[in-house]
């Protein structure tokens, strides 16, 4: 098991955003958590990344309890996030933003090779490499955010609503890249999405989150066939 | 050059060194500091004590002065890392008042009388004063600017900029914000201590009042005026605010009022400072600079 999340509770003051969610990821899986706005998806990812600690419960990564580990150390042991709304460093260039991704690493990364691989996958970033990140379009920012997370060669990639605000064509392209990363490079991905169709489409398994609890789980195909999922999330 | 001009020039260069240090903390790492004069004072007092009581020369004392300044900056930086921005402003003001009070009331530091009889700096057998001392200060300013330039080029600056703009995103990249904020504090306060040491040996007499809170406000005004996070901003800001009161003598009495007003106006209308990325001055200068390059 690569990641095990056991009965986590996340609360902001009196508001319980996540109330006892458990799930797990095997190595090489691509798993989706789908849920409406405010269901608690971001809260779950942030507690896995260590940005906002859970009030209760535990998070196990590669057999090691990391519940109390600070975020920058989690990043070093191979967990990376593509945060909601990209969160790039606005006053650094595209190239510099990419470099920040390898900063904290202990292991040696062939940076130049890695960057040219990323430029191959996201040609637009190569074109814009000298431009400040805050001058990029929404789609370019999302691509840079993914590339910045990938440069460190992570073992687990957390992706928070990458489809938000993107044109359908771009959504397709970005999800295509995620699928390719998973299938060809064996990257384990946890995808969190409102866009249930696009994400289940590339996933092996999925969980449905409703107001902080896990309402349903199953293989992607099962979930797509589920009448409730069809009605609420797929708009059939 | 008249001795008057040299005196003003020397003070400006010394202050510019301190403001460069403040720039590392505020401009590069995004940590507000309203107590920078405290570190300037710690450098000055350390240099004064080491030369008058321990009999060390400026040169032998200098590494110690810088190390002590940096170390105290590190200690005081520790709690600052944990508090929010608005508390950090208050914490640093508090540090300034405490340090000043210690200098003023602890007899070991000369008490209200301050420390006098600080020897001049001797360089190859020559006692530096006037022009030669100004030259020495300029050399130190140059070295400090080199360090700042290197900081904006190296890895650490990338991390510092990242932390300044997006702290939690930076942590998810494996960048420990604690480490980089502390690093900025240590480098920034060491520079202030260096400036303090030069100040002590130049004035030959120092007093707790030289390092009071209004001095910190002055440093911050100089930095904000010139442009936070830029290389030359601290120098330009210090130069302008150092020369203005000399030209308009009445300003001297209203210095603090003037500094405070300036600080507020700059933050409201030109937060990047005169040399900031989107400043009016940059826009005016840009075509000239471009022509210069072509
Ligand atoms: N920093 C915060 N402070 C207070 N409440 C928050 C905070 N972040 C999220 N919430 C609340 O927690 C709930 C879940 O939010 P979130 O995890 O962002 O959901 P999602 O990502 O699924 O939209 C929402 O009701 C939201 O209002
Ligand atoms: Mg969200």
Helix/strand layout:
The complex is a heterodimer of chains A (236) and B (294).
Chain A: E1 3-12, E2 15-25, E3 30-35, H1 41-49, E4 56-61, E5 64-65, H2 71-76, E6 79-82, H3 94-100, H4 111-121, H5 123-127, H6 138-150, E7 156-160, H7 168-185, E8 188-193, H8 196-202, E9 205-210, E10 213-219, H9 220-225, H10 227-232
Parallel strand pairs in A: 3-8, 3-9, 6-7, 7-8
Antiparallel strand pairs in A: 1-2, 1-4, 4-5, 9-10
Helix pairs in contact in A: 3-6
Chain B: H1 3-28, H2 36-52, H3 58-82, H4 85-105, E1 122-123, E2 126-127, H5 131-153, H6 155-165, H7 167-171, H8 177-203, H9 213-226, H10 233-247, H11 255-269, H12 280-293
Antiparallel strand pairs in B: 1-2
Adenosine-5'-diphosphate is lined by residues 12, 15, 17, 35, 37-43 of chain A.
In short:
The complex is a heterodimer of chains A (236) and B (294). Chain A is built from 10 helices and 10 strands.
Number of helical segments with 4 or more residues of chain B: 12
Major beta-sheet overview of chain B: 2 strands, antiparallel
Q: Share of helix among residues of chain A?
A: 25-40%
CATH topology of the largest domain in chain A: Rossmann fold
Beta content of chain A: 25-35%
CATH class of the largest domain in chain A: Alpha Beta
Gap between N and C termini of chain B: 36 Å
Total tally of structural domains of chain A: 2
């Amino acid at each position: 098991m690569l990641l095990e999340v056991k009965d986590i509770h996340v609360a902001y003051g009196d508001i319980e955003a996540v109330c006892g969610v458990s799930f797990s990821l095997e190595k090489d899986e691509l798993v989706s958590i789908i849920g409406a706005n405010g269901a608690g998806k971001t809260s779950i990812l942030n507690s896995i990344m260590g940005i906002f600690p859970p009030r209760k419960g535990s998070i196990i990564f590669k057999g090691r309890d990391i519940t109390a580990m600070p975020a920058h150390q989690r990043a070093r042991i191979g967990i990376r996030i593509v945060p909601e709304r990209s969160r790039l460093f606005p006053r650094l260039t595209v190239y510099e933003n990419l470099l920040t991704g390898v900063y904290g690493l202990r292991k040696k990364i062939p940076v130049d090779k890695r960057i040219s691989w990323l430029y191959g996958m996201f040609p637009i970033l190569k074109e814009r490499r000298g431009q400040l990140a805050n001058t990029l379009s929404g789609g370019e920012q999302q691509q840079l955010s993914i590339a910045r997370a990938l440069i460190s060669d992570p073992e687990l990639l957390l992706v928070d609503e990458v489809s938000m605000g993107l044109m359908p064509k771009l959504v397709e392209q970005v999800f295509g890249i995620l699928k390719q990363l998973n299938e060809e490079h064996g990257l384990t991905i946890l995808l969190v999405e409102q866009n249930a169709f696009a994400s289940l489409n590339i996933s092996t398994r999925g969980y449905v989150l409703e107001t902080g609890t896990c309402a349903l789980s199953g293989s992607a195909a099962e979930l797509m066939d589920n009448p409730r999922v069809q009605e609420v999330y797929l708009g059939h | 050059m008249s001795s008057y001009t040299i005196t003003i020039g020397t003070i400006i260069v010394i202050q510019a060194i301190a403001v460069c240090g403040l720039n590392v903390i505020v401009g590069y790492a995004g940590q507000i500091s309203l107590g920078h004069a405290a570190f300037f004072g710690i450098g000055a007092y350390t240099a004064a004590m080491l030369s008058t009581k321990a009999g060390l020369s400026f040169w032998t004392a200098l590494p110690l002065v810088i190390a002590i300044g940096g170390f105290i900056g590190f200690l005081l930086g520790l709690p600052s890392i944990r508090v929010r921005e608005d508390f950090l402003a208050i914490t640093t003001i508090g540090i300034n008042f405490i340090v000043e009070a210690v200098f003023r009331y602890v007899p070991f530091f000369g008490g209200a009388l301050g420390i006098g009889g600080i020897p001049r700096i001797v360089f190859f057998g020559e006692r530096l004063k006037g022009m030669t001392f100004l030259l020495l200060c300029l050399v130190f300013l140059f070295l400090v600017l080199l360090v700042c330039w290197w900081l904006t080029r190296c890895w650490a600056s990338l991390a510092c900029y990242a932390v300044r703009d997006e702290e939690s995103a930076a942590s998810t990249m494996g960048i420990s914000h604690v480490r980089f904020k502390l690093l900025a504090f240590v480098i920034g306060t060491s520079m202030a201590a260096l400036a303090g040491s030069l100040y002590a040996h130049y004035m030959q007499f120092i007093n707790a009042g030289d390092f009071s809170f209004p001095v910190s406000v002055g440093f911050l005004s100089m930095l904000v005026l010139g442009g936070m996070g830029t290389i030359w901003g601290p120098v330009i800001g210090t130069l302008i605010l150092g020369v203005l009161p000399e030209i308009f003598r009445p300003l001297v009495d209203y210095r603090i009022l003037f500094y405070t007003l300036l600080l507020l106006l700059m933050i409201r209308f030109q937060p990047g400072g005169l040399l900031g990325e989107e400043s009016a001055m940059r826009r005016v200068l840009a075509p000239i600079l471009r022509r210069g390059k072509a």
